[in-house]
Amino acid sequence: MRKPKVFITRQIPETAINVIREYYEVEVWRDEKEPPREVLLEKVRDVDALVTLLSDKIDREILDNAPRLRIIAQYAVGYDNIDIEEATRRGIYVTNTPDVLTEATADFAWALLLATARQLVDADKFVRSGEWKRKGVAWHPLMYLGYDVYGKTIGIIGFGRIGQAIARRARGFNMKILYYSRTRKPEKEEELGAEFKPLNELLRESDFVVLAVPLTKETYYMINEKRLKLMKPMAILINIARGKVVDTKALIKALEEGWIAGAGLDVFEEEPYYNKELFKLKNVTLAPHIGSATYGARYAMAELVARNLIAFAKGEVPPTLVNREVLNVRKPGFSR
User: Where does NADP(+) bind (predicted)?
Assistant: First the structure.
């Protein structure tokens, strides 16, 4: 009996690929760039399984070209790149990789927050460029002034696993912790010393606002011109969620005109991304979507992808199944 075939749209840790090979015939796209659309359309024609990333748009056209496809294993927590409703209708299982990247992403949110608050990137450039030596200024009281973090107020928008992990770190900075989410979480309020606030109140009161929400119809452009104007002029916005949670044009205006003091962004409206207006600003810290980029997190994500694929191949429900409604459409496994 032939092994089911899986196409992996990007190089992932080889240890996980070797495990997957025990159950699947594996093909990996090893180019650093994502497979072009036409290549992806061709590759899915004869695959039973697909390992995807957020930049892979898995829409109806792709699904139409994949008659044998039975499972999509997303190498990420988010899955807004996949047409979940259409996949479910066709009996295609969709999985993701929650939990395993929570701490790495929370760490990175704090890295962005601190780097932005203290002008770390510009200070690094100042030293590396030789400008420090050329100016001959050993130290000056007004050099690279930043904003205090300890004892300030942090507002966390989205209070799931990552939002809560960010709050735990905020306790070490003796911060007042505010949060907003669709539902209140009294047990977490008590555990973390967090206070629920309506969104607009949170924006008005916070010195640092961290976005940790999924991209949905409700969160699309959640941070727009109106809401940016609610924030303190000394406030800093951190986005580790999805780029389209923030209206970039409005953010540029806010940064240029001083509605807020700065921003730290790990995600963008389109990725890869370039925006001359945004990138010329000195009060923004930028990263290329690397919130989960630690050895531990990326290996754990790959292992979870493998576990999902193997469980499905065995006829078992994958451990992190996203669209549980699919269980009513088709049983797990490749039996016809």
Answer: 159-162, 181-183, 240-242, 289-291
